[in-house]
Amino acid sequence: MKVHVVVKMKRKRVKDRDVCGTTLLKTMEINVAEAEKRTGKNAVNMLETYTVYLIETRPVDTVSEGISPTPDSLWRRYSEFEILRNYLLVTYPFVVVPPLPEKRAEFVWHKLSADNMDPDFVERRRVGLENFLLRVASHTALSNDKIFFTFLTEENGWKEIVFETGFQAKADSRLKALNATFRVKNPDKRFAEMKHYGDELQSVISQLLRVRARVADRLYGVYKVHGNYGRVFSEWSAIEKEMGDGLQSAGHHMDAYAASVDDILEEEEHYADQLKEYLFYMDSLKAVCRKHELTQFELEMAAQDLSSKKQQREELATGTVRTFSLKGMTSKLFGQETPEQREAKMKVLEEQIQEGEEEVKEKNSECDEFVNNAWCDIERFKDQKDHDLKEALISYAIMQISMCKKGIQVWSNAKECFNKM
Amino acid sequence: MSGGTPKTLCSSGQRSLQEICHPLSAEDSSVLTPSPDVGTAAATGSIGEKDLSLPNGTPVDTSSPASSSSLLNRLQLDDDLDGETRDLFVTVDDPRKHVSTMETYITYRVSTKTTRAEFDLPEYSVRRRYQDFDWLRIKLEESQPTHLIPPLPEKFVMKGVVDRFSEEFVETRRKALDKFLKRVADHPVLSFNEHFSVFLSAKDLNAYKKQGLALLTKMGESVKYVTGGYKLRGRPVEFAAMGEYLDVFTQKLGTIDRIAQRIIKEQSEYLVELKEYGPVYSSWASFEAELQEPLEGVAGCVANCCSALEELTEEMCEDFLPVLREYVLYIESMKNVLKKRDQVQAEYETKLEAVAFRKEERSGVSPQMPTDVEKCQDRMECFNADLKADWDRWQNNKRQDFRQLLTGMADKNIQYYEKCLAAWESLIPLLQDKQENGKPETN
Fold first, then answer.
1. Which segments constitute the PX domain (chain A) (predicted)?
2. C or N: which end of chain B has fewer Cβ atoms within 10 Å?
3. Which of B266, B411, B441 is nearest residue A18 as measured by Cβ atoms?
4. Residues of B with Cβ-Cβ distance to A2 under 8 angstroms
5. Residue B129, SS3?
């Protein structure tokens, strides 16, 4: 499943390019149209201010037919998106689940507000949430999920429904497993490489975002200082005769130059957001790899268990004790067991071995299934990542070009004024 | 205070210069009193007839150089600033380092091309060091105190960090020295100064410098305008305006200098971050496959922008700031000239008043004005005339200089952005091409 991301000013649209596989996006148009501030009592009965986002949905047929009925809509807050995402993580462990926009503003350059209530932050979050929904809606597996559909269509009662699935408990054990340390003997090398890639990408994007924020800071300084030229040229023009007009107009251009940096940097935030999305995506990617390790580990544990049980059976049958065991010791000390005892033991062992073989078989197929599904999604993700990041770089280059052209324009204007001095 | 007959003087209070009339100038107002050495005094007279002894510009051996230069001003019918009538071209180039046991210093080649008669040859090429330029400037100030002498680049390098022998420093200095000589060469009075001619032509300048002492006494070039502490009654409006203008202008130049320095500082800090930014893309590229080329491309663009920025900052340091500072020095020396003018006027007024006062005490009118007072008036009027002419010239030059300076600044910035633009534009087709020919979709 490949998605084609078209990057526009302030709005990203995830469009379906592929014909195979049904996704929700084919039949439904989804927008996160607005954001609003609300005040209410929270769980501990304290008054809090929070933001809600308006999700609008519309059947695609009506839009393409030219009829534009009022979309269905509901309000959701960020925490509800988090719940949805956690549910998806648990329910589809083989999927690289899309990330949410950041909870708190990070990698901020100092002029930009780190305040969650800041309108620019809220706006960027709105775009990020929309992007999240569109990505989910364009994924073959995720988009067909009932809970997801309900999230989009039923404002009240959704929370109860999702909690009823019991995903919370699974979420906790998932977290535990993710953080546990265990050694896998035969992991699929591809997953190990992917996990390593995830670490590297996280590290390099973090670094990139940090340095970019500093670069933005400095660029701001350079532009703003030029505004001082505006003032001094104006003052100077007052004591000049022929030179006055040229100086005065040039000063205005210097003011314009200084002011232009605000728009430039705002646009660049969009680029930073695109990078951040993939930074956060790495957590999902690594989680999928981790899940593989877990299933593989469980398989290996089951196989090991089976093998030791089989060994015990052999020892019991032949009477030889190959490995040191307490039983062996006691039987040496206190004599062998009676044939009846041995037969009883054998029976138990056979049962256990039977179960163990079923278990191993199950785990094996689980593992294989997971590997297939997960690798398939990882491949999809890789293509999506390559495409999206290339688009991001293109749009970044276009931003730089635009900035250069503006610079040339302003200084050419100023030069004209200077020439008239 | 009566506004009546000029010959009556009240003893009270301050009077403006206009009210204290020259006792001799009953009818004529703007009479140039010829210097005592040149013929008898006359109320009017065509100067041309009197000054047959003056060749095409060589200063006459008089006791009052100021008056001779003002005579020259009147001889010259138009300012030959447009270069069409220019007959003297000077260039400073080819800096060379000289190492001796005593010291190390730089000399510059001063090349002259001229058709002027007072030069023996049509072309000269001599080597001069900063000391020599400094000497020349001092000599010009001494011998032409009523004129605005262009400034020299700063003598001492304040910051210990700057290397006196670095290419950038030497080049900046060379440009300033070249500008200095060109401004002198373009000046209708200064360019005919003997010291200037010698500077341009002499093989051994040091010998001339020593000789200068003897010449000094011969030509009577002692500094005549030592501040006598005379009180100025009222500055003529135009000179007051000049002083005010210079005060404000200096202020503005100072502000512009500070802003330019601040910009350079901010740009340098921006550059530091950029230099760290580019390489991150490279290290990212090292573990990518499809994205490797685009990422390396971006790293390359950022590197190009870095070098473009470095060039911009360097040029601002070398070309922009020194010219600003030069003008600040120029203005300082101009303010000194204005002060001298004030002193000359004050001296005249005081002496005039003393004479008029003495006249009042006697019962008759002395037939002759003491030559002392005449000289003072002459000096003052010449000074004023020279200054006015130089002021206009200076305003014109200033306008051209700043037009050039600021358009230069705009140009440098335009070039910077054009370089960056070219870098980023060349990246786009590379990126987009890859995008279109991307890997086939997989499910």
1. 31-159
2. N
3. B441
4. 441-442
5. strand
